[in-house]
Each structure stands twice: as C-alpha cells, then as structure tokens.
What we know:
Blueprint: E1 8-21, E2 26-27, E3 30-31, E4 36-38, H1 46-58, H2 64-67, H3 80-93, E5 96-106, H4 116-127, E6 134-139, H5 145-148, E7 152-163
Parallel strand pairs: 5-6
Antiparallel strand pairs: 1-4, 1-7, 2-3, 5-7
Helix pairs in contact: 1-3, 3-4
The structure holds magnesium ion.
Magnesium ion is lined by residues 15, 17, 40, 46, 49.
Amino acid sequence: MTHHDVGFRIGIGYDVHQLVPGRPLVLGGVAVPSPVGLAGHSDADVLAHALIDALLGAAAAGDIGRLFPDTDPDYKDADSIMLLKDVVKRLARDGWAVGNVDATVAAERPKLTPYVPAMRERLAAALAVPPAAVSVKATTSEGLGFVGEGRGIAVHAVALLYRRNGGA
Ligand code: MG
C-alpha cells in the first residue's frame, strides 16, 4: 500500500499579503479598484495563493513556496491564475480532479461583495469546475488586528479533490 486512498482528499490553505500604496489589488483573478494593493513577488493574489495551498494540501503535494519560489525571477509579477491552472494540471496528471473549493477573504476594505461573482467565474475556469463549485466569502475583522487596521488581507481556503477514473 503506497498511501491511504479513500478517493476523496481535503486540504486547507492560508495566506496573508500586506496592503501597500501603488500596487494593484487582485483577488481571485479580478482587479478590484482600491487605493492600496497587495505587496508580493507575484501579483500577490492572496485568494489564488490560499486556494493553491488548499489544493496542494489535499494532494499532500507540498506548498506554493516550494513549487513557485519567490526567489525565481520567472514568478516576478506572475499572474496567480496561471499558477493555479498549473497546479490543477499537475494534480490532474496524478489522477486528481477538483470537487469544490471554499474560501473566506478577511479584508477591512474595500467592500468585496460586488466582485465575488466575477472572482467565482475566474477561479472556476482555472479550476475546471462550474462556478457553483467555487465559494468565495468576504468578511471584515471588526477593526481588530492587521486585517482590521487595513494593513493586510488574509484568506482561509479549503479544497476537496476526488480520484478521476479510479486514478493511479
Ligand atoms: Mg502568497
């Protein structure tokens, strides 16, 4: 027996990026109008990053930092949706398909709710699932901590993978 395989696997992902002036705010592949954006080596799409770690976690396949090192100039200003697609492709090669994902974005501002449908569409396309299998929820931190003070955005995500065609 190579590993315990029940045909379904869950994973958790978490990421934080700092909000700074002069950067775009990209969340779930959607540019959100904002006077501040997320700092990072790539486009700093904290939602895409948390989802990538949830997917990799479900497959016990490492983490985003191992796959896409932020010391690698290839990933400078990288479109994180492309990284997400790449991860989905890697998982598919190992026989895994995405069942559904769920994420909570903790941000004090701007108001994200109007952009959630577009985020779900973009993420669903990258994950090769219908938008109904992609949940994005927005919450604030009630003024508390780094999120509440508007210094950063944090995302928690979970993902379910299932074995396609019996798999490897
Ligand atoms: Mg990140």
